[in-house]
Amino acid sequence: MIFERILGPLDSLFDRIGRRKTGDAPLAAFLLVPAVLVLGVFGIYPLFFSIYISLFDLRMGRGAFCGLENYTEALTTPNFWHSLVVTLYFALGTIPVAMALSFLVASALFRIVRGRSILRTVYFLPYVTSVVAAATIWRVLLNPHYGLVNAALGAVGFEETRWSQWLLEPKGVLYLATGGLIPESVGPSLALCCVILFEIWHSSGFMIVILLAGMTAIPRELEESARIDGANWFQVTRRVTVPLLSPTIFFLLIISAIKAFQAFNSFYALTGDGRGPVNATQNMTVYIYASFFLNGREGYGAAVATLLSVAIVALTLAQWRFVGRKVYYE
Amino acid sequence: MTRKALVYVVLSAGAVVTTFPFLWMLTTAFKTYAEAASPTVDLWPEVWQWQNLGETFRAAPFATYFANTFLVAAIVTSAVVVTAVTAGYAFARLEFPLRRVLFGLVLATMMVPFEVILIPNFVLIHRLDWYNTYAALTIPWCANAFSIFLMRQAFMGLPGDFFDAARVDGCGHLRFLAYVAAPLVKPMVVTVALFAFLGSYNSLIWPLIVTGTESRRVVQVGLTMFSGEAGVQFNLLMCASALVILPTVAVYFAAQRHFLESSLGAGIKG
Predict the structure, then answer these.
(1) What is the ipTM of this complex?
(2) Where are the domains of chain B?
(3) Is residue A192 scored above 70 in pLDDT?
(4) Which end of chain B, N or C, is less packed with Cβ atoms under 10 Å?
């Protein structure tokens, strides 16, 4: 009733104004002001403010104009390049594996009727849990001294292997796998690989659900006729299912590439500060966070953030250009 | 038939791997300190230590963290619903100058990587003197492009005749929106509310950088801090994780059908 008391007169008022020349404009302004204000101040304005800040040697809120110095500093700092490499390893490690696993699970789910919705819910579960809480579980599981993973390996006879440090191991997996033939610094570190595994576990549910929905939308006659023509599972998948699913796969690729480049929570929660042992897991976002929040250099952080977003936009455009044209639209 | 059995075996194995960490979290949460910290593979606790729940709340100010989180999530969720419904309706149903430009700008905010706006907003919060306040935690998140876009799509889908009919009965746009249009797109409103709640509840980096004291700390930040402080009190750490996970899983199960189906449609057709 109180609602109508306020709404009624407002409605009549805008109705009366609306009948004049102004049309819907006053009402539109009334409805849009809250959203536009918030998005303008915290969404659009920061874009320009960020570029402005990146031209200053801003430290803890004060500092002088320095031109492009922050950018040149970033491009000549080894840590910057290291964080870019970590980001690339992370993207290349998570996306193809998660995509392949999700595709397999989704096609298996698609074949069954009984239990499909329960299993789908189960697979989606990690995705709805907070990254921080899920990462906390994994951090304990992978604890070198008390963790279940090492205890389980010990129980079957693998005590104190060179793999036992997990998230605390800055050495490369190639070094560990070859027993020292390949230098420590080549390839992703074991700590980073643990983060990658965690991410695959945590985010595959999303891909599975989307792929499953995509598969349900494919006309079944095509797969059936291919089967009647004698195609096996692999051929049907490769020649019929994947091409028909390509818009969905492409959508997932774009989304997960952007997400991989922006990943922060899993890094932070798994390693305690995001950087990991000897900066082994310091990706771009963690590097930005460390620059402006831990080291108090907002100008430098903003410059790195600008470089990162240029990279993200370039990557997305490249995907549209090179992968997008292979997408089959009916 | 055997192939089908194989499919079920593989799927069940995958499901076990997927859920095992959660099961392990739940049992470890109620083990004794010694049991949880000893490197064994026993899944079940010797005796279920239910008092761990209380211990967890005493070990760190989780009550404050949860109160802050729910307050922030409630404010953000209701604000997002209001801004998305009003702005979505305006973009879908009203004729006004600069409509396309404004809508383009709104969509542009969706494509900006969040790292780019992180630092300017951090600086802005300090200049506004909002550091360590609820305002800093809520106001920047009170509207978002994705929700506005979803509501606009939903309102565009309503037949125009509805409005004409309501108009004949004396409704203006506002009454039509409140009594006819919004109730008709309720599934989408629920989806927007869910996304807003989950986004707010699970956010880490923003609350991490704009709060500095326990009195304003949210639960995600609190849990990462506790994870550093708790050392090997794995039982309490898992208890805290379970408590943090519980609300989102409850929300997910309560609204599951809704959530999956409409978010899918939005994702693929978007």
Answers:
(1) 0.88
(2) 1-50, 62-269
(3) yes
(4) N
Q: If you count residue pairs, one on A and one on B, with CB atoms under 8 Å apart, how many are there?
A: 283
User: CATH fold of B62-269, please?
Assistant: MetI-like fold (1.10.3720)
Nearest of B118, B227, B126 to residue A284 by alpha carbon: B118
Tell me, yes or no, if B9 comes closer than 8 A to chain A by beta carbon.
no
Average pLDDT of A227-241? 88
Residue B267 has pLDDT above 80, yes or no: no
pLDDT-derived band at B268, boundaries 50, 70, 90? very low
Tokens of B68: 């802050």
- The whole-angstrom separation of Cα A17 and Cα A230 is 70
Closest to A311 measured CA to CA, from A303, A57, B146: A303
C-alpha to C-alpha distance for B65 and B60, rounded to whole angstroms:
9
Question: Does the beta carbon of B249 lie under 8 angstroms from any beta carbon of chain A?
Answer: yes
Contact A57, A64 (CB under 8 A): yes
Mind telling me how many Å the CA of A183 is from chain B's nearest CA?
31
Cα A70-A74-A75 angle, rounded to 5 deg = 120
Does the distance separating the beta carbons of B82 and A139 come in below 8 Å?
no
Which structural domains are found in chain A, ordered by start? Answer: 2-53 (no CATH), 72-326 (1.10.3720.10)
- For residue B203, give every residue at least 6 positions away whose Cβ sits within 8 Å of its Cβ, in sequence order, or none: B141, B218, B220
Residue B6 has pLDDT above 90, yes or no: no
Distance (Å) of CA B71 to CA A295, B37, B216, B224, B247? 31, 35, 11, 20, 14
> How many residues in total does chain A contain?
330
Stretch A195-219: mean pLDDT:
91
- pTM of the full predicted structure? 0.91
